[in-house]
Amino acid sequence: MKNLETSIFVRRAIAEPEMARYLSMRAMRRQNLRLVLRLGLGVALWTMALLESCGSDKDRIVEEKVAEQLADFRKRETEKCRQALLVEAERMVDSLLLAEAIVEIEDSIRNARPPKPIKPPLMEPFDSFPVRPIFDTLRR
Questions:
Q1: Which residue has the higher pLDDT, 104 or 90?
Q2: Whole-number mean pLDDT of the chain?
């Protein structure tokens, strides 16, 4: 059947120059398609072979990268924790120092009260006469 179709197209191509150009383009397309398929198949086979041969290297490289990223992550997190710990420790130390200073000031103020003064002796009255009204005349 193919030979029959080919022979019909060949006869028509000889008879009509336009058909010959169409057939040659069609043949070129078919050839190009075959070439692309062969190249694609070859590239696919080469890629599979390379991936198969480099599989253990790829796993090793991936493990190294993961280990490196994990180490970097741990280092960053350790540094963050250390900074947070230092900030918290500074806050606690400042609070303790301030509380201690306040206690010292309060103690020094409480202890610095002056003692009560000594009571003076009772003063005797200047005269020992009994008390009586100044103006006796009004009463009498």
A1: 90
A2: 76
